[in-house]
Amino acid sequence: MLRVTAKQQLMREIVELLSVLTEEAKLVWSEKGLHVTVVDGSHVALLSATIADECFETYEVEKVEIGLELGKMRDLLTLAGPNDLVELDYDDSFGAINVRVGEVHRILRGVDPATMNNPNIPNLEFNHKATVGSDRLSRSLRAAKFVGEIVDLSLDQTHMTVSITVEAGEGVNVKFESGELSELVCPTPTQSSYSLQFLDPLTRKLAGGLTENITLEFQEKYPLRLTWNSNQGGASWTYFLAPRVTNDP
């Protein structure tokens, strides 16, 4: 059983961020909140979120899993006004999701959650991290994407660098000094490379007002882990992206 009401901004955030990686998601609702983990089709990137029950306007839930086509919900949310609430009502005996946005009522047929994957969140320990403003990170990655598709991230004891250089000699280099970072932990210098195909769309959305700061954790040949909070800390997000490893000597 599920009966929840949410501000349209919260539902847009959930649907739009998950949609960066996939078009279907298994939403796991419990008495304390919503948990969801998705991966992209190539299993290069993973996004996991926990949305506490207090983020919702009303919350009546007995533990249930719902498979949702994100595109259908995304379309419906385009009808929502700034102050509209989104009502979700689900009974697993029928398998249909009743969604109300303003005066609009739509019935969505859920995806069978038994047919959907349960991605495993990597259990990794990182020794290096930096926390930077979401708008500044997005701007640096957008600049890098003007030049190429693979960005280099590096850390040392005094700064973090976002850079890219291509064979034609073009390049972009953005340096964040330690004073510009909310946090910097770097016992030894490190560097790793990641795909902008995945990073750029996500960070653009985050820079649109969803979160003020993003923490990056990475080191050589390790996945990149991004973490951030939203909704006054009631929602926590974790994103993993596999590194681009070359065989160059």
In short, what is this structure?
The protein has 249 residues and is of the alpha+beta class.
Structure description:
The chain is an alpha+beta fold and 249 residues long. The chain has two domains: 2-115, Box (Proliferating Cell Nuclear Antigen), CATH 3.70.10; 129-241, DNA Polymerase III, Chain A, domain 2, CATH 3.10.150.10. The chain is 19% helix and 44% strand. It is built from four helices and 18 strands. It has helices at 8-19, 70-77, 134-145, 196-210, and strands at residues 2-7, 24-30, 33-39, 45-52, 58-61, 64-69, 85-91, 96-101, 104-109, 129-133, 150-155, 159-165, 171-177, 183-185, 190-195, 213-217, 224-230, 235-241. The protein has a nine-stranded antiparallel β-sheet with strand order 6-2-3-4-18-17-16-10-14. Strand 11 and strand 12 form a beta hairpin. Helix 3 (134-145) packs antiparallel against helix 4. It is elongated and about 60 Å long. The protein starts with a strand and ends in an 8-residue tail after the last strand.
Largest sheet: spatial strand order: 6-2-3-4-18-17-16-10-14
CATH topology type of the largest domain: Proliferating Cell Nuclear Antigen
Q: Residue-averaged pLDDT, rounded?
A: 94
Q: Flag low-confidence runs.
A: none
